[in-house]
Design goal:
It contains nine helices and no strands. The chain has 211 residues and is an all-alpha fold. The protein has one domain: Serine Threonine Protein Phosphatase 5, Tetratricopeptide repeat, CATH 1.25.40. Helix 1 packs antiparallel against helix 3, helix 3 runs antiparallel to helix 4 and helix 7 packs antiparallel against helix 8. The longest helix is centred in the middle third of the chain and has 19 residues. The radius of gyration is 16 Å and the shape is globular.
């Protein structure tokens, strides 16, 4: 792979996110059904179908336009907390790419740092609360470590995916402390969080496409 990510590669990565959410919608709803409303996958898939349509109208533009298009659709079409959280996630990723024509490990780190900040600001969740933060924060720490060590883009992407996966899997042993699931208390232990899972699936789709 090249040492830098280009806008056409990022476009492919965003399309891959849409396709992955569509493919995994039943799995996500099943996870959500155990401790939530059971509609996470359906709602996400409906939204990312619209995202894909929007992306097809504006392929291969600059990074900011590509990712901002995703953000705007998500903000406007997913109800409840998830729309705000994932809309913010993509909006902050987009804003961190302003004026850039290619992206390296340090750029990816800055993008994900901004996305994490946005999620923490509006979601008020902390690591260990059994939310998508448990997937996202370890992924960001992995990028920070690899940027510091000047790792190759390929290594950084591999490590990013692995860290996100470990984070997602860690939610099985947690008790939900935020959102609707928190009302179930101890009964949430033993179930993987749907939001943490959709966050991992998006990161994994991006990594696969960028690699």
């Amino acid at each position: 792979m090249s040492a830098q990510i280009t806008p056409p590669q990022m476009y492919k990565a965003m399309v891959a996110v849409c396709d992955t959410i569509e493919e995994q919608k039943e799995y996500l709803s099943e996870l959500d059904g155990a401790i939530g409303d059971g509609d996470h996958g359906v709602n996400m898939a409906k939204c990312f179908r619209l995202v894909k349509t929007k992306l097809e109208e504006t392929p291969d533009k600059e990074f900011e336009t590509i990712i901002k298009n995703v953000a705007m659709v998500v903000l406007n079409s997913v109800g409840g907390a998830m729309g705000a959280l994932y809309g913010t996630f993509f909006m902050r990723l987009a804003q961190a790419t302003t004026g850039k024509t290619e992206l390296g490990v340090k750029d990816l780190m800055e993008m994900f740092q901004e996305a994490e900040k946005g999620i923490l600001e509006i979601g008020q969740a902390a690591l260990g609360d059994k939310t998508l933060v448990d997937t996202l924060s370890p992924a960001v720490r992995s990028l920070e470590k690899d940027a510091q060590a000047e790792e190759s883009l390929e290594s950084a992407l591999t490590n990013l995916e692995k860290a996100a996966k470990r984070g997602m899997e860690s939610t099985k042993d947690m008790v939900a402390k935020i959102g609707r699931a928190s009302r179930l208390g101890e009964r949430t232990r033993g179930h993987q969080d749907a939001g943490a899972t959709s966050c991992y699936l998006m990161i994994e789709a991006m990594v696969s496409a960028l690699r």
